[in-house]
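Human: We require from you a standard protein entry with sequence in single-letter code and fold as tokens, and nothing else.

Assistant:
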Amino acid sequence: MVKIDGITLLFLTIAANAAVSPTSLSSDISVIIHNDLQESESPFSDSGILVLGARTWREATESCIKLGESVWGSGSSIKKIQRDLDYLVYQGRYAQTQRFWTASDNRKPSTINANGQIKSVSINEKLPVICTQTAPYSNITFQDTSSKWQVTVKSNNEYLTGFRDRFSFRFLGVRYAKQPQRWEYSKVYKGSGKKIPALDYGSECIQGTSGSEDCLFLNIWTPYIPQPKKTPNKNLKPVMFWIHGGAFTGGTSSDPTFDGSNLASRGDVVVVAINYRLGTLGFLALDDGETNGNYGLADQTTALEWVRQNIKDFGGDPDRVTIFGQSAGAGSVRALLASSKARGYFASAIMLSNLGGLGYGTTYSKYYTIAEEMAVVGNVILSETNCTQATSPIECLRALPATTISSLADTARYLVVDGVYLEHAELNLANPASTSNVPLMIGTMRDDGAAMIGYPSAEETIQTFLAQNGVPDSIAPSQLFPVPSTANATLDIFNTSARIATDGIFRCIDEATAQAGSTNHIFPDIFYYEFNRSYQLPGWSPNFPVCNAPITETFPNGDPSKEYFKCHSGELGYVFGTFLRQGLPYRDEFDLPFGQYVLDSWASFARSARPTPDSGFLKARGYVNTSREIELNGSWESFGKNGQMRLLQWPSRMENLAELEQCRALGLGLNYFVS
């Protein structure tokens, strides 16, 4: 049994085994670390600290031990945590001269300020304390949820116990709605007053033969937990609310690609990722006057309402919520912008690779009436399930196992005009009063469409291949869409078809959205981008290997400087900073700084509605690669300034929009939405 300044360590070690809380510590808790996205391989891996509010030396020692840590030792090099101290000052939480409790080499009390000056003071003085931060890293296969790292937050009338890893606090599988009756709208869940573990992901929503109907859960990653009722609103963090893609038929918030820890830590934001009902179980609409569809969209709105009510308990600012999503998630963001039910629940929006325009993409930006949805798929589903002649078709469907419905040959995956969540056939880009008036960030991958088409067979012509993919077959070959003539005829057809699919399904509709949103003053500010560097996800690389950088002797992991397709979903590892976590290797010396720049830009938009980070923020955090990129290649300019986009590569630059003539030829010109 060891005593330090009269404190019995045995007792405190036992106390540390119980989950702590801001209430038990009488303090908010911050995790700050220099996160360069290299995780355990980083030279800054031991730069993390925990920061607690003012207390005496005895209380400081006691509090750190309760957290499973110790008071940070000033015998360690101040250089390790200098950026952390600089950031505390930049945030305005402390002055440059503020002293923090630390410990000397012989574990005696000492203090340090942001200038690195060490000084002894009375042990009865109340000062904020710096604790060590030794929680392990989480990765794609491992999360240490043991009691040593657990932390409890009271929220939504429950005591939710999550855990801390090296970068953030993680609250997983948090219920935002009880399981509704099938094809009824979800309602915000009110807690039971009980202690609830939030240590593992909730079930994914039914898709095929996997998942559960009880799936309306969300995950939270936060670098900051406030002390209830004692934290100024100015200390709360912006919230990034993620909506996964998957064609409205698949996907889950527990996908490791979307792990929010790096984004929360490096970006200093709270990240929320949600599940929502999918496929026929999430989007079926019938002409019975009751089953009106959009249940998955309603779930997203319910989750936003939960966030509005409760996210402050996890350090998030309910008035600074950015909704962002990719593919069908971007289609969801577009629908939420159009929905009066979601109005007021978010302050900005990001659409990554929204679909629209032609062929497969049409229904993501234009919404069927219920009668149209019945004609396209509703009647077919009733026929497949033998429910057409039932007294109540919907009750007939409810009697079937969920996996039977989700495994049918046909799926109701369509957003519809239900009169409640969606009142118009598309996002109204002519009338500012009909759309959420929030800053918008929007853009695509350079070759998004290459993943949306198959690969032509040897006997196919470009006309038959285009027609097969729902694209006008008269558009090529032409001067605007020439077909190369090489020894590989099928690759020639694919190259041109991928370009047409990218324009017709992604690029044109999104460029036109930015143009109308700016011209008609729908959004107060718009920022447009195109990715010209990508990192295809390990588990999804359509038409392999066209979406991967070509392998050479010098670049065995691929050479991003050479030509390859920058395909759908190829930006996600960069946006979330998870490419290394997924085992994707560095291909060249630019992958890491580019990833840092992308994440910094997305987080900056959430913090300030501008994707160019504040120079003071970058300096305080030591983000030198992003600072240098902005100094050398300029800020990301608003679309309204000159109608340009940010070409996201390394280095990046502002550039004119691409394929304008081609978009006009497809009937999707820049003024498509402009009245």
Remarks:
- Residues 54 and 127 are 4 Å apart (CA to CA).
- Residues 3-132 form a domain with the Mannose-Binding Protein A; Chain A fold (CATH 3.10.100).
